[in-house]
Amino acid sequence: MKKLFSLLAISGMLFFGSADLFAQEEATSQAPATENVQSGSQAQPEEVPIHKAIKTKFIEGGAGFMASVLICLILGLAIAIERIIYLGLSSTNNKKLLQKVEDALNEGGIEAAKEVCKNTRGPVASIFYQGLDRYDDKKENNIDLIEKSVVSYGSVQMGQMESGVTWINLFIALSPMLGFMGTVIGMIQAFDSIEQAGDVSASLVAAGIKVALITTVTGLVAAIILQVFCNYILSKIESITNDMEDASISFIDILVKYQEKNN
Question: Which of 103, 187, 204, 246 could be a cystine partner for 193, CB 3.0 to 4.6 Å?
Fold first, then answer.
């Protein structure tokens, strides 16, 4: 996860550096150009590449608020990507794992089954291991104790899977708020220009309104992107949780059969 944050931080620094360099190039290259007017024809405007257009809008929107929204987007994406990788590694074939545990119980007992769970990644294997670790056929209500430990450790695993989702929701809320703050400040600048000029003119308020709209759009786009990732992560967690509950029921049934067989 640290490597992922480092890569995204470097990418953000490169983006800001390229944006500043582009701004300097634009400032130095703007000079009054001579137009060659031909009879009956006009020069067609050149198409601006999308990455240059984005850089231009980023500069026009104001470095302060645009950088804040971009930081929220980068941090939110970093956490979202880390969660997606973690949840992807947490997904296992539960039917195959249950079969391995059952075969290990029949052939080598509790210790063999614990070794199978220990060598298998994912929250389901960890829950099985906790249940097997508390197995003791000498105790009364042994299965009830195992079931309680499975349920308790299942809650722990759910908490680990949901770790970081709160931060994603925070950045989803912050991004449009920062955009709206830029909108308010842009409108204040527009009214300041009107007050100083003493007259209402489209050219006076255009700059402030432009900043307001750019920051608003950027904040909303960042929030939409993060919301898509957040919903995917929540749906993945729900799917894994359902599989955990189903596998836990089958695991308890296997232990009941094993206890009846040995008794």
Answer: 204
Lowest mean pLDDT of 22-36, 148-162, 227-241, name the range.
Answer: 22-36
When pLDDT is cut at 50, 70 and 90, the band that residue 43 belongs to is very low
Evaluate whether residue 40 is within a structural domain: no
Within 13 Å, how many C-alpha atoms sit on residue 82's CB side?
A: 22
Tell which of 161, 181, 210 closes a domain.
Answer: 161
Domain that holds residue 190: 1-7+51-97+163-263
Residue position matching structure tokens 């039917």 = 95
SS3 state at 144: helix
Residue 41 pairs in a beta bridge with 38
Name the burial class of residue 21, with classes exposed (0-12), middle (13-18) and buried (19+) by CB atoms within 10 angstroms of its CB: exposed
DSSP state of 42: -
CB atoms within 10 A of CB 258: 19
Q: What's the average model confidence in pLDDT over 236-244?
A: 90
Whether residues 144 and 64 fall in one domain: no
Domain count, the chain: 2
Query: Looking at the domain assignment, is residue 42 inside a domain?
Result: no
Co-location of 106 and 236 in the same domain = no
Q: Which of 131, 161, 191 represents a domain boundary (last residue)?
A: 161
Distance (Å, whole) CA 182 – CA 67: 11
